[in-house]
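Q: Is it fine to ask for two folds in a single conversation?
A: Yes, each is treated on its own. Send the first.
Q: Here.
A: Result:
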Amino acid sequence: MINEYKKLLAGLDDVDWASLSHAYESAHDVPGHIRTLCGSDDEAREQAFSSLFSSIFHQGSRYSASPVAVPFLARIALAGPAAARENTMWLLTRLAVDWHDEYDVTTGINVAGWRAAAAEGGPEELLPWYEEQLAAATGADQRAQLQEIRDWVAAGNSPDARWSALQSYDAVLAELPDLLALLDDDDTRLRTRIAYLLAWFPEFSTASLPRLLALAAHGRTRSPQPPHCSPQASSDLPPRSRTSPRIWMPQIR
């Protein structure tokens, strides 16, 4: 069945996944899980979803592999196996907005504030700090630890969770023009999921709002209900402020 969906996976093996990271360090296993989503083994597919949820979206955290996986997941949501499309849409939603964001469902995300806060923790902002710490370090272990983190930040990464989450949010935002087609899908649950996802993107509202209002006017959608949370996507993270500092700094001994 994977051959049937070969176009959806085009470019998957061109990505240097081993150089990217997720919750369990190297993201070398991500393409295998994505490929399994297009297979015919239902049990293997569920396991692949579980692995992706726990690695590229680990308890709400996003990693360098997370935004890179988004385009492939979007293709599967649009034209993948029927058994994979709904869960893929749920994973895309989680990569865009985490558990805490749902506390803001009545008011929406302050994307402008999020972008401003994330910019403070971007690689360009943090690199000078790590270089200063490295220059002042004296112990060999301390210098080795700081050098590793400094090189990682210099490669375009950031230990600030706000910054990494925004990369995934923007990756999903880039796929929305194509994902809009799901509003016309025959599957009611897919229409519900894309409508729910669109609600988190005020920057895309000029394109999405007229479509949503038109569907509502024609009775094509049911009353909005948040999609059911699948078991593998559970989390017990406490609420936290979107703009609160979440920068991980090394503990230097």
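Q: Second one now.
A: Result:
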Amino acid sequence: MLRETDHVVELLREAGSSAAIVLVIGLVLFGASGVWPPMVAVESGSMELHMQRGDLVFLMDEQRFAPDVATRRTGVVTYRTG
């Protein structure tokens, strides 16, 4: 039979592992995007043609993966250049 202290230890272990998983996911997303926070939610209707309120958007540093041949440092490589 489990004692009260065993329940507390189990609760702390579960909370700690959940926090560690969230931290690792956050660090991976930060490593991939180069900005913090790497994801934001659309909060208004200003983007309504393309996105709805509540949508999650993954943000990324503009120059994160831009090759040297990109047009005007936008990260876009044209068909002719490519």
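Q: Anything structural to flag on that second result?
A: Two points. The first helix runs from residue 4 to 33. The chain has one helix and two strands.
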